[in-house]
Amino acid sequence: MPLQIGVDPETDEPVELPDDTLLRHAAILGATGAGKTVLGKVFIEEAVRAGIPVIAVDPQGDLASLALAPTQESLGEHPVPPEVLDGYWARAAVAILTPGSSRGTPAGLNPLKSPPAAATSEDLVVALDALAEGLAVAMGYDPSSDGGGRAKDVLFLTLQASLKAGTWPRDVPTLTRALAHEAPLEAAKLLTKRERASLVRRAQSMTIGAKGLLFTAGPALDVESMLAWAPKGRVPVNLIYTGGLRNPRERELVVATLCKDVHAWMIARPSGGLRLLVY
Questions:
Q1: In this predicted model, what pLDDT tens digit does every residue of 71-82 receive, in sequence order?
Q2: Which of 204, 225, 208 has its CA nearest to residue 107?
Q3: Fewer Cβ atoms within 10 Å of its own Cβ: the N or the C terminal residue of the chain?
Q4: Buried b / exposed e along 14-30 (16+ C-beta atoms within 10 A)
Q5: Global pTM value
Q6: What CA–CA distance (Å, rounded) separates 198 from 209?
């Protein structure tokens, strides 16, 4: 089903986009106020009309209107053909997920819930490295610095050794224990005793206090769950609101973890068709 993304102002003919165009990345570029978010919502609404589930990261709350029926005022500003409007609301099931908070549908984060999926050994190294870097940043390290880079490398080597041994740490507390007691010898050589103790303390503190809410506020974000919760005949629209998180590090970790999960889902269920829109 082609996606109707607008109307030609000169001919009044619908402007349509084949859905397979979105099998690759797309970007919406424009100046402030040009209508980037409005067009993004159109993509989402059209995906729903085509029966395609949606996972959308919403850093500012701009997408929340997808869960609200339009008013006469909003329709005056952005006219929508009645059949398009009815088609969306007849199918959409919208959830607003709030990592680290209970203000919406509570959600947590577990970047370690499953090992990275990769088609080749090289891809696996890249995936593990990206995971280690995301964890290092979440712990407050700067991976581009000497100390932060070595801490990231220790995380990488520990994760790699755990994966090879079949003892993958499936949550942060388990990773903390691995760093304290099971880090491979080559990892231990990268840090002094004081630096290693600091790394373990930082890992322990990830799940404590306000920052720990990101990992404990609710069930971990999971692609399979986000695609399965909607009532029969409805299309799930998952809006992940990150505006309530404390800092850019936490927001980046949410996006990185989500992308890792989507990638694993794609590899486990290969298909040539459009089955999910990630925004």
A1: 888 888 777 788
A2: 225
A3: N
A4: eeebebeebeeeeeeee
A5: 0.86
A6: 18
